[in-house]
Specification:
Elements: H1 2-20, H2 24-48, H3 62-71, H4 75-92, E1 105-110, E2 113-118, H5 121-129, E3 134-136, H6 146-150, H7 159-173, H8 180-198, H9 205-222, H10 235-247, H11 250-253, H12 262-291, H13 310-318, H14 325-356, H15 358-372, H16 374-382, H17 393-398, H18 401-412, E4 422-424, E5 428-429, E6 435-436, E7 441-444, H19 446-450, H20 453-456, H21 502-519, E8 520-525, H22 528-532, E9 550-555
Parallel strand pairs: 2-7
Antiparallel strand pairs: 1-2, 3-4, 4-7, 5-6, 8-9
Bound molecules: protoporphyrin IX containing FE (HEM).
Protoporphyrin IX containing FE binds at residues 136, 154-155, 166, 334-335, 338-339, 342-343, 346, 415-416, 419-420, 491-493, 497, 499-501, 504-505.
Length: 558
Amino acid sequence: MAAFSTIAAPAAWIIQLVAARTTNRTRVLAAFLAVAVGWAARRIYKSVLPPRSLRHLPYAPALAYLRSNLRGDGFLNWKPALLDLTREDAMRKGVIKSMDETPDVFLMWLVGTWFVHLANPDDAKLLYTQHELFEKAVISDGLGFSPMFFGRNVFSVPTPEWKHHRKVVNPAFRRGWDTSFFGEPARNLIAELDAASSAGKTIDPADWMQRMTLDGLTLAAFGTSLDAIRHPNGDMVATYNAILKSLSNFRELLHPWYEQSAAGKRVKRDILRFNQFLFDLIDNKTAQLKAQGRLGQANAEDNDNDRRDLLEMMIQAAEGSDFTREDLRSNMAIFFLAGHDTTANELSFAIYLMGLHKDVQNKARAEVIQIMGKDAARRAATCDAADMVYPTSEQERAFTYLNFVIKETMRLYPSVAKLPRRKTSAPVTLSNGVKLPAGVPVTVDTYALQRDKAVYGPDADEFKPDRWASTVGKDGAVPMHPPAHNYSWAPFGGGQRICIGQQFSLVEQRVVLAMLLLRYEWDVVGNANALKGVPDMIPSDVTLHSKGIEVQLRRRSA
Ligand code: HEM
């Protein structure tokens, strides 16, 4: 109410002013102004206060979000602080009894919209598995040029249309991933890192892992890598990075004449060029398959040594169906985004955390050496980068402790910190009896869920890979799917919309980390926040992306 009266005061002042004026013209003008201010006040009032039907849930004031947005706070600066404000409100409302608890369900504000956040494993399971109740909102219909770049793809569309995409995309992902897709680009990475380490220079893992995963993705997706490791300013790498930067710049996108502005025209030109690049790849690959008489050939089943690329397998699966060339393009565009940034972030957090926790780094290295053999480890320490050893599929699958490290990293720093938005299509009752009306935007707060002390204990915020030892199955396998953890670990989402690239990412993470462990030892240095365990992050509320971490690598001796 206080917010409303503050905003409405100018309207009252204008009305008083009207009364004091005599001419009709001034009266009409002032009345018009009063209506406009009143309308704006009502809009602001409605957007800063949650809707009446949700106001009983805990929430932090919208102004606190606005302040941190305007300051450009990184994720680890704003999120824990806002969660604490939410906890205070939850205590006032009697939802929790101590600040160590996290409410199962709460609200968070994002540019004028209040989202329901689920942070309880049972409710997360409900959302993941009852997709007809929690329909995915179309995200590419968003701001600015997003639809032109992402089109309609398997990631972004609601269920009926999703089936059309998934039919063609599935066969391309349901397969083994030859470790050379990642081992080959990682050799280029190691050549560059060798140069940095011998010059005594520190590296920012976020930057290098972005380049590494872009090369891994493009090699596996098209059969040729963009070679971002060696040529970070190459034409298509730079174009793609410029597009991503523009599409995530809210200040630019909210500009009323953005599409006509110089920045808008530039990004439109970049998107048209990039789309053409993808169309050319599709057309060339189709022509090549036709010339080889392989168009329409069935996709092989899961095979670890399959070097066929994603595009080839999708063209094969699409052959003879109503899947269009634009469908192929828009899915390739989303693989670019979903397939490299997420894995890059997890890899750089794993490098960071192992740099802070040397005991974990040593234990992971000992396991890699034990599985790959002492000879391979000796060679890996001394050979040229171009001959660097990488694990076979059998070896990477045998890493147990390294999987614990990956799981624990993805628990503390889930690259997708909250699930893309859903909307309730009917009234829903959550596990604790809370009722949500139809039409409400909902998300799973993966960050809050995976750090919940009620689930993970008082050390929930600490990096302890060994906490996963008890989850190893009788066959020795480390489970990586949400039902195995009653949905308390779900960085890849769950249910029918679970990440299709999960295996791709996990194989890539194991291959790259194993190679780095064989070649180097490392420490986190420099940046004080990173050394304290609170690395700086780029301002985003969805993806966790560190900045300014400095790692000092040292070549290992044989
Ligand atoms: C650490 C790496 C990754 C993380 C944390 C991650 C996370 C996620 C999450 C949380 C979802 C679920 C979205 C939802 O339910 O709305 C998702 C879906 C998806 N991911 Fe990933 N992802 C990763 C890697 C990849 C890779 C490597 C690819 C492709 C090469 C990929 C492609 C996709 C696609 C296409 C979907 C949509 C699936 C569908 O709706 O059917 N992701 N990912």
